[in-house]
Write a structure and sequence with these properties.
Order of helices and strands of chain B: EEEHEEHEHHHEHEHEE
InterPro entries (chain A): ABC3_permease_C, MacB_PCD, Macrolide_Exporter_MacB
Bound molecules: adenosine-5'-triphosphate, magnesium ion
CATH superfamily of chain B: P-loop containing nucleotide triphosphate hydrolases
Distance between the termini of chain A: 30 Å
Low-confidence stretches of chain B: none
Strand content of chain A: 15-25%
Keywords (chain A): Cell membrane, Membrane, Transmembrane, Transmembrane helix
CATH class of chain B: Alpha Beta
Protein name (chain A): ABC transporter permease
Radius of gyration of chain B: 18 Å
Subcellular location (chain A): Cell membrane
Strand content of chain B: 25-35%
Distance between the termini of chain B: 28 Å
Number of helices of chain A: 23
Pfam families (chain A): FtsX, MacB_PCD
Largest sheet of chain A: 8 strands, mixed
CATH topology of chain B: Rossmann fold
Number of domains of chain A: 3
Number of helices of chain B: 7
Number of strands of chain B: 10
Strand order of the largest sheet of chain B: 6-7-8-3-9-10
Helix content of chain A: 40-55%
Oligomer: heterodimer
Chain lengths: ~800, ~230
């Protein structure tokens, strides 16, 4: 029976080639999107899973607003380094607690004996306990003693191979320069650990133990911020530990406030509150301190891939039920030949399984082909066959196969197997024909998805356009940011200034791509305001090309500019009041005079609002010592000048290569994530819409075919071709219009929510709605008419003879 | 073998009962060849459908092989289809996606007949009906008469004890019709298969040995055929 059923399935597929192609092809595309998504999710959930022992490692998080992009408190993964000792003393469940310096990003210069210096990133400075907490496998050296002494370094296998061509590098030394005029530290290699080929949230190329981070700052008012990880010997009760942590943290803070002569109530106000907790290492990646987590990031893509899959499944179901007219006789006959209903259901499920299997095969090929592109696009290393989780993936695919087979096949199978043989065998297919309501419902659902997606694309397009053309408030071209600290008068700055083609050399703590926000409270007119403070050198604002709204910006002519003047941005000015130029405000004990107001400029993407900001050229407000050395060039063709800068750099700092990026690139990078996500969404949406239309096309073919006899009779009775086309169109048109009516509010809510994520956004546009509706109606009418016309212009005699 | 007592069938619409069959009481014995006749709309097909358990009577009892089957569960009914009843239709109703061979094989597969037994039975039938050469063709490649031969071969494949045929020759011209009727007669005489057919043709009815004449849902006449005619060999 099985073999015969397979044969029938095959013959049916062959008989309806076009629909089979639409079915299988559509399903394959839907599956491909979904499988890619699964691979991505697999990758994102595989962080910190490379050893079973990682289950027992926890990351400490303190609730504070130090160095947050919006100056608001968050659960930050960098903590006051003193927390390590506190946790070790007060929480006996933890065996080891280790401190890791923040990943500063740009990397260190590595100098091997005679080779040129090279920049290597992800060096992490830790105390001596790192490898006691993290169970890395040592290929060379001893895990428990390797970094006991200061100035030791443990390399990752890949770095060792890259630098030395071998992992046998014990006791060799490398010279490490951490900044441009660092004389360098000789580090002894005391170990090499194996690479892990699964993602890690504590990412490193080498672990160094300089000793800098072993002790906490002595002054109670000084802080060092670092990451802290603790390992437990077994399972612990996190809620319980967190309750204790909170309590000891509050006690600790109170005690330290007494020494620092501040009051608890003064410190914790305006939404600030004390907080210290642990989270399992394996949850660290999914809960970043303030960025959107990957789960939230891909939510729209998840939704759209599910829609995509749904659209292809709906096509499948609709075409199958439409086809069931053709199969009715088979069912009726088989029933009187002695087939159980169950056997018939199985037969039709088998058919959908067959098609799903074919789709799955095509999908696997497509995934293989698309994976490199996809990996590249999302900048993740996804793999399919070579994946560590192959077994896992096989199960997921199997699950998907079963799910799709049932989703696509069960309803048609059930409908078909329910046919009453007497009715069918009397030739009365129509009355035995079930499932029209269901099918219409599915067509509506499909069009709701399609129309909503079209509207979504339209709104996104307009918003992107708006952002792309929006003025950043500063001039980002001809601007290069060298990653190094800088103060007016520094040797390197003076040398660069002399190069022809260089217009300004400056620094600021706030620059696209590298911003270091410092929150502060200022008093103006006896009123206190929270503002963001930025320290700049004299030339920074002119170098950025900001627009002056009133007053002036800093200039060498005014001596006091290095002491106690300030420039506000528009947002800050609005906060304080009107006619500010010349007025004074206080920050703590110090007074500053407002000399000018500039137009807001964006130094983050457009999803974040510009903070009220005070700009100063003064050491009273902190140093401009973030790693931004801003160089503005004269002409668009600044390449030769930039090369001259690099040559000058090399002369002064031969052992530390110059690291730089253009501000334009930094800007593009800040837009990149949104852009990439948008491209995926648009791509998936377009595919969904096309699949919906293909489904409609196939369905209307069936409908026209099914009504061939009716059409023929109507024509004999005198109906014109146009009247017949209209008749066939009417039923579909009602469905499409209904779908549009339902889509509008849905699309409105979704796009409004999406726009809400942008600090700078367009008003809800009307056009995408109108366009989506008009397009969907036109395309639906066109598709249906195409089929209807074919049926209508046929000679009625042929149809009746055929019957 | 079949015992009908007081069978009634009506359809009610708007509260009014439209009787299709009334007080139908009759017995059909093993080995009989019965022709049901009557004007169009008199209820012939309905009666045959009830006999084939495709429809349920609204009232009355129906015993098949001594068992009350008026309201049989699906599984039991399917067992009867598999083992005792063969259907032949006016419109042949072969499955279009199956070849001649596969069409005949289908009921055997449902009955779970072993493969060698299956092959020999099908070979036998193909041979008997002279359609060996056609075994790999699809129904739409056959003439109406050939299709009906396949339909009968399919009905006989499970070696049923009774064949129910609703106007088996309704779509055929007389020469082909005669051939089919002779075949029925032969099956009835030589293999003792009970045959119940619905027919409009007086001539076809004479091939059988009993005629039930139905008018307005009532059996008006139940008589043996006048001159049982021996046909030529098929
Ligand atoms: N589902 C139904 N609902 C209502 N009435 C029905 C239904 N099925 C059949 N009938 C009625 O039952 C009566 C008998 O129908 P049946 O098919 O048995 O007639 P018949 O004797 O086989 O006629 P013919 O020789 O034309 O095939 C007809 O009057 C028909 O209208
Ligand atoms: Mg009839």
């Amino acid at each position: 029976m099985f073999k015969l059923n397979l044969k029938i399935a095959w013959r049916n597929l062959f008989k309806n080639k076009v629909y089979a192609a639409i079915n299988i092809g559509g399903l394959a595309i839907g599956l491909t999107a979904f499988v890619l998504l699964i691979l991505f999710v697999n990758h994102e959930t595989s962080y910190d899973k490379w050893s079973p022992d990682l289950k027992n490692i926890y990351q400490l998080r303190e609730y504070h607003d130090y160095s947050t992009p919006d100056n608001q408190p968050h659960w930050m993964q960098v903590n006051d380094s003193r927390m390590a000792a506190l946790v070790r003393d007060k929480i006996p469940q933890f065996k080891y607690v280790t401190r890791i310096d923040q990943d500063w990003g740009d990397g260190f210069s590595v100098k091997l004996a005679n080779a040129d210096p090279a920049i290597v990133d992800h060096f992490r400075d830790t105390d001596s306990l790192f490898f006691k907490v993290f169970p890395y496998q040592f290929l060379q050296g001893d895990r428990f003693t390797a970094i006991n002494k200061p100035n030791t370094i443990v390399l990752k296998q890949s770095l060792a191979v890259k630098l030395f061509g071998t992992v046998k590098v014990l006791n060799k030394t490398i010279k490490l320069l951490m900044w441009r005029d660092d004389p360098g530290t000789l580090m002894t290699i005391t170990g090499v650990v194996a690479d892990v080929n699964m993602p890690e949230s504590v990412k490193f190329n080498a672990i160094i133990h300089t000793g800098n981070i072993d002790k906490d700052p002595e002054q109670i008012n000084n802080f060092r911020h670092c990451e802290i990880y603790a390992s437990a010997s077994g399972k612990i009760d996190i809620t319980q530990v967190n309750r204790t942590l909170h309590k000891i943290y509050v006690d600790y803070k109170k005690a330290s406030f007494v020494k620092r002569k501040i009051t608890y109530a003064d410190y914790y106000k305006n939404g600030k509150k004390p907080g210290l907790k642990i989270i399992p290492l394996q949850k660290v990646y999914a809960t970043p301190s303030f960025d959107v987590s990957w789960v939230d990031r891909i939510k729209p893509i998840v939704a759209i891939s599910i829609f995509l899959l749904l659209v292809s499944v709906i096509n499948f179901v609709n075409l199958a039920t439409a086809q069931s007219v053709q199969r009715a006789k088979e069912v009726g006959v088989k029933k009187v030949l002695g087939a159980y209903k169950k056997q018939l259901v199985t037969q039709f499920l088998l058919e959908s399984a067959l098609q799903t299997l074919a789709a799955l095969f095509i999908c696997i090929i497509l995934v293989e082909v698309l994976l490199p592109v996809f990996s590249n696009h999302f900048d993740v290393k996804l793999s399919f066959w070579r994946s560590e989780q192959l077994l896992n993936i096989s199960f997921q695919l199997l699950g998907l196969f079963v799910l799709i087979t049932f989703m696509a096949g069960f309803y048609p199978a059930w409908i078909l197997s329910k046919y009453n043989p007497v009715k069918v065998l009397k030739g009365n297919y129509e009355s035995g024909f079930k499932g029209i309501a269901m099918r219409n419902g599915l067509v509506v659902l499909q069009f709701i998805i399609a129309v909503t997606l079209i509207i979504g694309i339209g709104v996104m397009y307009q918003q992107t356009n708006f952002v792309a053309n929006k003025d950043l408030g500063f001039n980002r071209d001809k601007l290069v940011n060298i990653s190094t600290y800088y103060r007016d008068g520094d040797l390197i700055g003076e040398r660069i200034k002399k190069i022809t083609g260089v217009k300004y050399v400056a620094t600021t703590t706030q620059l696209m791509g590298n911003t270091f926000n410092v929150p502060s409270e200022i008093t103006y007119n006896n009123q206190e305001h929270s503002v963001n403070t930025v320290t700049v050198t004299m030339d920074a604002l002119p170098a950025l090309g900001v627009q002056v709204l009133s007053g002036r910006i800093f200039s060498l002519e005014y001596k006091k500019d290095t002491v106690n003047t300030a420039v506000l941005n528009e947002t800050a000015a609005k906060l304080l009041g009107k006619n500010l130029v010349g007025k004074q405000f206080k920050e703590g004990e110090n007074s500053f005079q407002i000399v000018g107001v500039i137009k807001d400029y964006n130094n983050e993407g457009f999803d974040k609002a510009v903070l009220p900001t005070v700009y100063r050229v003064t050491h009273l407000g902190g140093m401009a010592s973030t790693n931004n050395l801003l160089v503005r060039f004269d002409s668009d063709n600044y390449k030769p000048a930039l090369m001259a800068v690099e040559a000058e750099w090399k002369k002064i700092y031969p052992d530390f290569p110059m690291i730089y990026t253009s501000v334009e690139d930094a800007f593009q990078k800040s837009m990149e994530a949104t852009h990439k996500q948008m491209q995926i969404i648009v791509l998936f949406s377009v595919i969904s819409v096309v699949l919906s239309l293909l489904g409609l096309f196939a369905l209307s073919t069936f409908m026209a075919k099914r009504r061939t006899k009716e059409i023929a009779i109507r024509k004999i009775l005198g109906a014109s071709n146009l009247e017949i086309i209209n008749m066939l169109n009417r039923s579909f048109l009602i469905l499409v219009i209904l779908a549009n009516l339902i889509s509008w509010p849905i699309a409105f809510i979704i796009t409004k929510k999406w726009l809400g994520g942008f600090a700078y956004r367009i008003d809800m546009p009307f056009w995408p709605f109108a366009i989506a509706t008009i397009t969907s109606v036109i395309i639906a009418v066109f598709t249906v008419s195409l089929q209807a016309r074919k049926a209508a212009v046929n000679n009625p005699v042929d149809a009746l003879k055929y019957e | 073998m079949i015992e009908l007592k007081n069978i009634e069938k009506y359809y009610s619409s708007k509260g009014i009962k439209h009787y299709v069959l009334r007080h139908v009481t009759t017995t059909i014995k093993q080995g009989e060849f019965v022709s049901i006749m009557g004007p169009s709309g008199s209820g012939k097909s309905t009666l045959l459908n009830i006999l084939g358990m495709l429809e349920e009577p609204t009232y009355g009892t129906f015993e098949f092989l001594g068992e009350d089957v008026t309201s049989l569960n699906e599984r039991k009914r399917i067992e009867l289809y598999r083992n005792h009843i063969g259907f032949v239709f006016q419109a042949y109703h072969l499955i279009d996606e199956m070849t001649v061979y596969e069409n005949i094989e289908a009921p055997l597969l449902y009955k779970k007949v072993g493969s060698s037994e299956r092959a020999s039975r099908i070979a036998n039938l193909l041979d008997k009906f002279n359609i060996v050469a056609k075994k790999d063709l699809f129904p739409n490649q056959l003439s109406g008469g050939q299709q009906q031969l396949v339909g009968i071969a399919r009905a006989l494949a499970t070696q049923p004890s009774i064949i129910l045929a609703d106007e088996p020759t309704g779509n055929l011209q007389s020469a082909q019709a005669e051939e089919i009727m002779q075949l029925f007669q032969k099956l009835n005489k030589e293999e003792g298969i009970t045959i119940i057919q619905v027919t409009h043709s007086e001539k076809n009815a004479t091939y059988g040995n009993r005629i039930l004449n139905i008018q307005d849902g009532v059996i008006k006449e139940d008589s043996p055929t006048q001159a049982p005619q021996m046909g030529g060999v098929v």
